[in-house]
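Protein 1 of 2
SEQ + STRUCT:
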Amino acid sequence: MEITVGTARENSVVRRKVRTRAAAVLLAGAVLVGASVGFSSGNARAAATPSPAPPSPKPSAPGSPNDAHQNGSWWVQPAPTPGSTAAARQYFILEGRPGTTLQDGLAVSNYTDHPITYYVYGADGYNTPRDGQFALRDHGYAMIGVGSWVRTAFPTITVPARTSTVVPISIAIPANASPGDHVGGVSGMDTAVESVQQQGNVQVGIKRVVAARLYVHVDGPAVGGLTVTQLKVTGSASFPAYVSDSDGTVTATVTNSGNLLESPKAHLRATGIFGTLIDRTVQLPQILPGQSIDFSQAWKNMPPFEIGTLHLDVTDDTASPPVTSSEALSLTLIPWLTLLVAALVVLALLVGLLFWRRRRNPPPVRPRVRRERPQRHERPETTKAAAP
């Protein structure tokens, strides 16, 4: 089971630039796909190492859930920094050197009228294959990224009704951690099974999860990179050509080949002998370092015949300097079915014309010459008389 996060609108860029340690904020909504993960918006925040969280859970009256990652019944968010008057943090945005440990806390608030027991754990982030959106691995998945760096003081915690509790957490950056952005989340999952779904012969228990995103930037060389591969056009010309519309699809794979978050835009352009065929720009989902997403754009009213070039330029102009990658494809659109049918029709006309001309102007008939067989002349037989 995967935890998928659907965005309410386009994500902002969250990145650390070379020699700059400012971070922007991401925006997300809650989606339940076997489990739900809630996120909400916040303001930009510079990276900072937070003060240590309280050594043990301390229940208190829950605050407003409007700015928390919540599902309506309970919510989680980074614990407020003691003594700080700044607005509540919506995400963990941290930075450190390899081999260091960062201390923080996760605030868990229960708005129901009964106690709830939660698993608290770190999860790796990734881009979903289907639409490239941000998602978190489920509880029990073998974490190999930033999710494996998270240590919680209490693997499970019970929060009384209508109270909030802070769970101390630490993020232990490995000594061999690669530099750049590492993205995941700190999740709280209700241990109770919310519902049971029947999938074939197997019953699957559904548990609800809420998480706060975790951004850890590891010091070192920061390298932005994007790569476009496998650009192609699929689809076939309508039949007959130029009578009905043709539809096609342009697809490609966009990979974040650097170690920073990228929030690119894709500019798709096709030109041919009849001018510009398509020219559009679309915002792509934010791509995590090392992740790939599938680019797909429908091409309505694709011309049945054209020879030209298809260009796909992917650029993250929020980076400094901007990161870009391009791919081009020779475009040859030929309505083969229409041409085949047309060729068969022409061939049939030629054959019909040939027969028609033969019937109208038949070839002259040659007179048949009768050849008589020569007569055989028989010689009279000579009879010899018998000797007396």
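Protein 2 of 2
SEQ + STRUCT:
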Amino acid sequence: RLEYGTPNTLGISGLQAGIKWILEQGMEKLHAHEMKLTKKLRDGLRDVDGVTLYCQDDLTDHISVLLYNIDGFEALNTGTILDVDHNIACRTGLHCAPLVHEQLRTAKIHGGVRFGIGPFNTDEHIQTAINAMKEIAEMRKS
């Protein structure tokens, strides 16, 4: 009947504002924007020598998340370089899904690097990420 402690009114307010914003923008519009950027990132990374993408060609039923590795680099090292040298946030490792990584054969190399595209990302962000990945992939040659 009664809840102990202080209700998370700030969290509830934030959730309400977030839901309102999504409904105002339109989920279809947001999804289309995210998928346009996801396709641009996927296509840009495909052309980078040494980058392995774990992604299907058809993005019809795909979400705006891409997983990849750079040959010869641990995912953690790639993520650290992206963070420190390029101010790019990503997630590295097994992503709480070790069985998926076993199927992808990335578990033994400690997972992968994951980019998640959101509604506030821009074409410029995507191009910056592609350029950063090219730079990191070039490091493996030296």
